[in-house]
Every structure is written in structure tokens, then in C-alpha cells.
Amino acid sequence: MSIETKLAELGITLPEAPAPAANYVPYVISGNLLFVSGQISTAKGKLGADLAVEAGTEAARTCGLALLAQARAALGSLDRVKRVVKLGGFVNSTPEFTDQPEVVNGCSNLMVEVFGDKGRHARAAVSAPALPRGVAVEIEAIFEIE
After folding, report:
1. Do the Cβ atoms of 84 and 118 come closer than 8 Å?
2. 43: how many CB neighbours lie within 10 A of its CB?
3. Is beta strand 27-30 parallel, antiparallel or unpaired with respect to 81-92?
4. pLDDT in tens, the chain (146 residues)
5. Do the Cβ atoms of 15 and 69 come closer than 8 Å?
């Protein structure tokens, strides 16, 4: 089954691939790897102060949708994704907040939903005292491609 068919079955519509907000490119292909620049959530605020874990998890999912949109823009088709190699998740949170892994699961779970076992990946989920434009979550990705 194609990934586009899988997305339709899951009721997932990808957004347009966001344009870069500064002096960088949205993705780079090097050999058989696709590096997608960090994608930010539309949700703003700080986990542990303004937002609950559930809101952060949803914010991470929106980052995942943007990552997939960038990958599709880079490759022409998500069917070229051989596997999700790594996600790097940054969570705008208070010093006391320790549920970064649960937040970033919003993106991780999406990758497994869409790609199955090929979506299982290495990952970092870290706290940040602030993120660009005050967003709640930013996530970058590395994909192995055909």
C-alpha cells in the first residue's frame, strides 16, 4: 500500500510544506539520507506553565505532519522513505517539567502510524528554556530514502 493511501485511510491530510523562516533550507539530501530542518508547532507556550502534556503531545503531532510534508516536498513521494532514522525533539518547558518524552511521542506515534515498523526510530526529547517565536515544540528528522 502506498503511503498516500495509508494517509487517506488514517484520515490524515498533510499541510503545505512550510517555507523557511530564516537563512536555512527546509531539507538537505545527502547520499541516502534526508535531513529535515526543525518544524515548529502552531501551539505556543511553555509546558509545565501554560500547557498540559496532552496539548504538547498534539503540538508534537503537528510538527510530525510538517516533517512529512517537507519529506514529500523533497522526495515527490513518501513512498521513497525507507525508514525514519531519528527524531530530535525540543520542548519549551519549565525547569521542573520532566515529561518531554511523552510530549515528543506525539510525533513518534505519528511516524509509526504512517510507516509501521519503518517508522520506529532513534530519538532525543529535550527541554529548552525557549523556542523560536514562543512555540511549544520543535522537531527535526532524518529519513533513510531510496
Report:
1. yes
2. 20
3. unpaired
4. 899 999 999 999 999 999 998 999 999 999 999 999 999 999 999 999 999 999 999 999 999 999 999 999 999 999 999 999 999 999 999 999 999 999 999 999 999 999 999 999 999 999 999 999 999 999 999 999 99
5. yes
Are 59 and 99 a contacting pair, CB within 8 Å? no
Q: Which of 60, 103, 82, 97 is nearest to 3 (CA)?
A: 82
- For residues 121 and 111, the answer to whether their CB atoms sit within 8 Å is yes
The verdict on pTM exceeding 0.85 is: yes
The CA-atom distances, in angstroms, between 70 and each of 46, 47, 51, 55, 143 are: 25, 26, 27, 23, 11
CATH 3.30.1330.40 fits 3-145, yes or no: yes
Helix ranges restricted to H, the chain: 3-10, 53-75, 100-115
